[in-house]
Amino acid sequence: MHSSASIAAEAAARQDFKQRIEAALAQVNYPAHPPILIETAEQSGAASDVVAALRTLPDEAFGSFSEVAASIEAARKPAGDLDQNCGR
């Protein structure tokens, strides 16, 4: 079980990561496919973890940054989190 401090730290880290991705994609015109997102992030000087997260996106058109963020968040959730939510 996670302590409330570790949960808060994880939430803050997720929010920071999301903000770094959003900054890297600030110049994107949506809808956009992953190759455009990756290229834009690389050209903006995004950190390798941001580019790596974008490389995990499925090959589909994303209509907004919110869609990109949701897809990355879903891919990053540990399998245990998904299992815990299934019973709710």
Report on this model:
With 88 residues, this protein is mostly helical. It has one domain. Helices cover 67% and strands 0% of the residues. The protein is built from five helices and no strands. It is globular. The two termini are 17 Å apart.
What is the secondary structure topology, with strand pairs?
Elements: H1 4-24, H2 34-43, H3 48-55, H4 65-76, H5 79-86
Helix pairs in contact: 2-3
The rough form would be described as globular
Q: Which class best fits the helix and strand makeup?
A: mainly alpha
Low-pLDDT runs: 81-88
Largest sheet: none
List keywords for this structure.
88 residues, mainly alpha, disordered C terminus
Short description:
The protein has 88 residues and is mainly α. It has helices at 4-24, 34-43, 48-55, 65-76, 79-86. Helix 2 runs antiparallel to helix 3.
